[in-house]
Amino acid sequence: MKGESCANLTNLFTVRQDDLRQWVGALDDEKLDEVCQALAIAVGCE
Q1: pLDDT, tens digit, for every residue of 14-24?
Q2: C-beta separation of 24 from 1 below 8 A
Q3: What's the pTM value of the predicted model, to 2 decimals?
């Protein structure tokens, strides 16, 4: 990502892939692991 950013994982919802309009960025493996851990906690799959 070009600048600092954050993800709020407290209010999750799904969207259709067709509704996604432009590429925003990607996470490195370490950050993706952190997101996966947060999602597991949020949905009770620890």
Answers
A1: 899 999 898 88
A2: yes
A3: 0.62
3-class secondary structure per residue, 1-46: CCCCCCCCCCCCCCCCHHHCCCCCCCCCHHHHHHHHHHHHHHCCCC
User: Side chain identity at 45, as an amino acid letter?
Assistant: C
| 4, two tokens | 């600092």
Residue whose tokens read 């997101």: 35
Q: Amino acid identity, residue 28?
A: D
Per-residue b or e along 31-40, where b marks 16 or more CB atoms closer than 10 Å to that residue's CB: eeeeeeeeee
Q: CA neighbours within 13 Å on the CB side: how many for 24?
A: 8
Tokens for 43? 């949905």
